[in-house]
Structure to design on (251 residues):
């Protein structure tokens, strides 16, 4: 396992460019109602607050290589369920409306990011997409999965819930956030099989996989919870540090 990347001596003017995937959705502001590139502002604030320059990446399928070439780090943000067909399943009745264009865009970005060795952080849907990209599998609806403990992973519509996670010793994630953490969640799906090269490094009390990482890469990590929601910026800080190292190396 490689240690967490840190660069406390970074040039203040050397700001890493960190792309954040987002949606194209109908939105309303002022007198306007238009399709907009949409992302909760907390993602942008988290990246900016840890020294990065946030750039929104809407679902545009072409140009993944050119996009990744301009980035120093990539965040796959939360959002709609991934198409079940992408991991060999029939869609569950509880699956929400999927976004095939976003699925395709993010898979293309992730393929290019892996090729380039770009630091990657997946959040909620993002960790699920990482697992699907690596030929893993998902639980499509956690409330229907038998378990030995009752862990609530999602509250009322738009309402996060908190539960504990335990983190594997010696993992990159543990070096960033420690061995245990109360986290904020809003999901009904989760990784079932992480996929090739990925290791499950955090679990909820009911055994749900809450985080995966690739120990062969410097920074390739996904978490199922929402660190941006409750101001837990350690993951964003670690991504920004890794992105600075990447930026210097490619310069």
């Amino acid at each position: 396992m490689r240690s967490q990347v840190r660069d406390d001596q970074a040039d203040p003017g050397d700001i890493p460019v960190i792309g954040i995937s987002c949606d194209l959705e109908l939105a309303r502001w002022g007198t306007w109602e238009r399709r907009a590139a949409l992302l909760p502002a907390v993602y942008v604030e988290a990246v900016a607050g840890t020294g990065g320059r946030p750039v929104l990446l809407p679902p545009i399928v072409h140009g993944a290589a050119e996009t990744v070439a301009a980035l120093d780090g990539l965040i796959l943000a939360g959002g709609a369920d991934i198409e079940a067909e992408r991991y060999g399943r029939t869609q569950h009745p509880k699956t929400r409306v999927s976004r095939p264009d976003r699925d395709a865009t993010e898979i293309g970005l992730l393929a290019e990011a892996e090729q380039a060795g770009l630091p990657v952080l997946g959040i909620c849907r993002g960790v699920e997409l990482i697992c699907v990209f690596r030929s893993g599998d998902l639980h499509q609806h956690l409330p229907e999965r038998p378990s030995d403990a009752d862990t609530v992973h999602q509250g009322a519509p738009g309402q996060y819930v908190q539960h504990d996670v335990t983190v594997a010793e010696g993992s990159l994630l543990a070096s960033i956030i420690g061995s245990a953490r109360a986290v904020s969640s809003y999901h009904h799906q989760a990784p079932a099989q992480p996929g090739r090269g990925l290791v499950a490094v955090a679990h909820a009390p009911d055994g749900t996989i809450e985080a995966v990482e690739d120990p062969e890469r410097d920074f390739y990590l996904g978490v199922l919870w929402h660190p941006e929601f409750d101001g837990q910026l350690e993951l964003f800080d670690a991504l920004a540090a890794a992105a600075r190292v990447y930026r210097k190396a490619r310069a």
The chain has one domain: 17-250. The radius of gyration is 17 Å. Residues 72 and 246 are 6 Å apart (CA to CA). Residues 17-250 form a domain with the Rossmann fold fold (CATH 3.40.50.880).
